[in-house]
Amino acid sequence: MNNTMKKSVKKCNFLLFCLIALVKTGCVKPIDNIITVIGTGYVGLVTGAGFASLGNQVICVDINTEKIKMLQKKQIPFFEPGLQELVHTVATTGHLSFTDNVGDAITKANILVIAVGTPSRADGHADLSALFKVLDTIICNMNNYKIIVVKSTVPITTNKKIEQYMLEKGIDHSLFAIVSNPEFLREGSAVYDFLNPDRVVIGTNNQAAAQCIADIYKPLKNGTVPLIITDTTSAELIKYASNAFLATKISFINEIANLCDHVDADIVTVAKGMGLDVRINPYFLNPGPGFGGSCFPKDSLELCATALAYNVPLDIVQGSLVVNNNQQELAVKKVKELMGPDLKGKTVCILGLSFKANTDDIRYSPAIKTIELLQKELVTIQAYDPVASSHMSVLFPDVTYAASIDDAVCNADVIIILTEWDVFKKIDWQKVRSQVRQPYLIDMRNIVDPVICMDTGFVYQGIGRGSYKNNNYVYNARPSCN
Ligand code: UGA
Q1: Residue 295 catalytic?
Q2: Active-site residue among 60, 212, 260, 295?
Q3: What is the dihedral of CA 464, 240, 207, 197, to 10 degrees?
Q4: How large a percentage of the chain has pLDDT more than 70?
Q5: CA of 296 to the centre of ligand 1 (A)
Q6: Domains (ranges, CATH) in the chain?
Q7: Sequence-distant (≥ 6) Cβ neighbours of residue 44 within 8 angstroms
Q8: More confident residue, 227 or 466
Q9: Dist. CA 111–CA 58, nearest whole Å
């Protein structure tokens, strides 16, 4: 061994010593698990990048080759704040990689996380065909013991059926464990939610697998995240019941807001007064144009369909869906109330197309129903959204998609705000007053200050802001709602 070699061996030994010391002190987590996340939608990608950021070796896999090509270039195929930066960081450190070779990614891993879509079928039940396709691929590539983590939202008892399916296909029980690990990520703040969970739910009948998955989440919030370890069916129901409860909370406040409009009460103050009761809390008490997105409508439907199959009708959840359908028609009703029933030839400006702010997702967006209803009235629609216009233009090519708020409001007879984007909160209504043809504003998110808006000459209608209806307000009655 020459001197140079001796020096480099010494250097290696020193580095190894330092690494072991760091691992022993808990500063660096030894990479022992290889996690393959199957499905790179917003849940799979955020979860994969999140696990990688906790020091795990993660492979994200998808059958969509184009998506994988983008991800390999560290480009994110959809809009999700903070995800680009997270993926870039963990891909650069080598903790996260991407492939479209599903079989290979499965054989390399000891933990498989299934995060494929489970959309609604026409009968209200979730479509599990993608999930079972993934299981077939796993079965074909079972080269060693694997923990199969089901992240996709699946109907009650699906995890039990998955276990049964594996056994029927001849995979020995000693070779796998099934873990239901539902996600609670909100689109638009999914990265934050992954890193700051309110709880982690682990459903399994295998104690060792439960411990292994619990350990992966352990670094979050310095190990203080409440952990619920339970059976798979209870875990599945926690997910559905949580979404259905939140959806019901929204439908509840929407109904109260609609009542406020008729009795001249102000929902902002009412919701504040309710939310101060710790048993109610102030979250999810904002009325709006109805809940949308890929989760609340789909999961509430699925829960109702499952419960009905057991002869347990869920009247409250069913009711929340009925209220929501009506709520999605409210914006157009309000336009007619303000401008009369004949809207033919009018120009309607829609601000906001995504189902909520900070996402480009338009699935079940209230904007879809609103545009459908408006198009029946033969109006011209000018719409603006910071990121969702291109998606909506596929559904409604006849709408004019403006490049800016200025272009969208130009010569409008009425403006409808449907999404609570921050840019809409900062609109200069004095300026907009000079751009529109008629000064009518329907604020379906209550993000505009009615007094400031009306001072510029707008006829304002929020949602549940009865005392501001048709500019019939009193300055002194303005609520203090911080
Ligand atoms: C929802 C849940 O909040 C997540 O916990 C869950 O993980 C996710 O579904 C899922 O199952 O994957 P998400 O659909 O991304 O997340 O969005 P939310 O922030 O919950 O909003 C859902 C809908 O309710 C939106 O249309 C939003 O505008 C509406 N909403 C929300 C209101 O109308 N008022 C509120 O006060 C809150």
Answers
A1: yes
A2: 295
A3: -30
A4: 90
A5: 7
A6: 27-230 (3.40.50.720), 240-324 (1.10.1040.10), 328-477 (3.40.50.720)
A7: 37, 38, 60, 62, 113, 115, 116, 151
A8: 227
A9: 9
